[in-house]
Amino acid sequence: MSLKRKIKNIPSWVYYCLVLVLIIPAIIPFLKSSFYTFHDETQIANLHQFISAIKLGQFPPRWAPNMQFNYGSPFLQFYYQLPFYLAFITNVIFGFSLVVSFKFIMVFSLLLGAFGIYFLALKFTKPFQAVLASAIYSLAPYRAVVILVRGTLGEALAFGIFPWVILFLLNLQNKQTKKNLLGATLFIALLALTHQLAILLVLPFILIITLGSSLILKKTKAFFYQLSSLVLGFGLSCFYLLPAIFEKRFLQTSSPFNFYDHFPFIKQLIYSPWGYGSSNWGMYDDMSFRLGIVQWLVVLVGIFIFVKIIVKKQSKTSSRDLTKKTILGLTLFSFLASLFLMNIRSSFFWNIFPYTQLVQFPWRLLMSAVLFSSFIFILLPFPKKLPNRLVLSTLILGFLLVPSFKYFQPGKVVDHQDNYFLRRYLPNQVLDEGETISADYLNHSEDYVPLPLTATRPKILPTKKLTTSSCGVAVNLIDKNPFHYSANLSSTTSTEFTFHTFDFPGWTVYLNDEKISHQRNKIGAITFSVPQGEHQLLIAYQNTPLRAFANYLSIFFLGLIATILLKKKPL
Core-most of 158, 321, 479, 494, by most CB within 10 Å? Predict the structure, then answer.
């Protein structure tokens, strides 16, 4: 049997193993018992608060009970969700620490993305080129920045989901089946729950490529089902998206970063020194924004080939080739548009874009650039002759693997475990002997935690959750759950109480099972008056009409999807 035929007969599991082997440099740092320093170390405390909210009976989690000196924050409602649900599974169900849960999510994101891009590539090319595409995507320098320099769980997991969204949307273009509709719907919903900025910065370009190609190729039915999956996906995630969008007006809008100080220069995208510091004004950044040698070469070759296609008129083109060329053109457009939006010359767009400060850093569009440069490689012709194929593959792997051993290295290896982060970023979860509040926490500003409009960050920890300055008051605590706080009160006079939690839509005070009005003190905590006598008190964090509507809307879409799947008739 010839070598060429032997290669054709290689079983699928061999290629799966190759995908795994080639991303080992990215995974190695997470397999060690030690940990490392990174920008968003507050992620560990965020995981703790999300898990704590679920344990206290709040689902979906919307309030972080221990932030801001235990006055709490609606932070969980506006932050990403899916990484935290994964952490809940690993931490609560399997008993892993928060640090190990963090590592697991990072490794999972790498594996999910590597196999996602591999299966996407198989739609257009042969397995070995698909393996190379997986390596190009997984070992891009910015992937190392995300997982090891910045340590952002949402962005890391979004990288894992992007290829699957494209895959199932393109599958719907070819076959309108229940499986493809469910796949597209599910991954769009997961992306929405993973990272808001992925929805704003990457998904529009994905839709330009997938839905746009259906329109250009006049595949009306495919376009309809692609659009349907988009509606169903967003419908499933309504419980998170609607409150996050429409209740943001109840938060103080502030950012410690000036958006316009963080446009990367073109030369920085080509080469910038590797570092573990921060993004600074101008060209003097302490972190790298390089796209990667292979990625740039792929884009340049893609542009050359696409121009050649346009110039060279072909009388006959197969349906498959036409689809491939159309998608290549739209992917190149998406890459170049992402590149332009990262440049300061696009300021006019950002001046009118409503979510500019939410984006914070224009260089986040490297998410798009990495994704689309890898997709462009998939769409390029690969040498047919085996010697040429092997030479090109060797060169690509060399340019990927050699630098990756530098990029995918932690900046500083440490032995920090859960208690280090909880002590540093939460007021009294971990205390030294004699402490009532962590000394490390007092040095933390919590400027990333949103405050309600009427709130001012306190400087001290309240002695009790419920307090009053009046004498002759007896408080018999029944349930200290901060989301369902109940007590029996007895007072000889009319009394003013303070519940040391920031007021925010959803907080409701009941006296003897009847809702009463409440006010706010000078820092925005809940205050209310109780008349003389004995009373039953309940303070609960409940759904607003919007949150309740969003929850029911998600349930409705879940039922709609189940109905579609259970129908015996095909789509």
Answer: 158
Residue 48 neighbours by CB distance under 10 Å: 22
Residue with tokens 């696409």: 306
549, part of any domain = no
Q: Are 173 and 213 in contact (CB under 8 A)?
A: yes
In a domain, residue 406? The reply is yes
Quick one: 357 and 479 in the same domain? Answer: no
The C-alpha atoms of residue 226 and residue 207 are separated, in whole angstroms, by 9
Residue ranges of E strands in 352-494: 413-414, 466-468, 473-479, 484-491
For the chain, percent of residues with pLDDT exceeding 70:
97
Domain encompassing residue 235: 80-411
The answer as to whether 121 is a domain residue is yes
Q: Cα–Cα distance between 334 and 336 in angstroms, integer? A: 6
> CB of 166 within 8 A of CB of 187?
no
Domain identity same for 407 and 472 = no
φ, ψ at 400 (rounded to 5°): -90, -50
User: 371 and 202 in contact (C-beta within 8 Å)?
Assistant: yes
Does 507 lie in the same domain as 407?
A: no
In degrees and rounded to multiples of 5, residue 92 shows phi and psi of -85, -45
Q: Which pLDDT tens digit goes with each residue over 268-320?
A: 999 999 999 988 887 888 899 999 999 999 999 999 999 988 887 665 667 77
pLDDT, position 316: 65
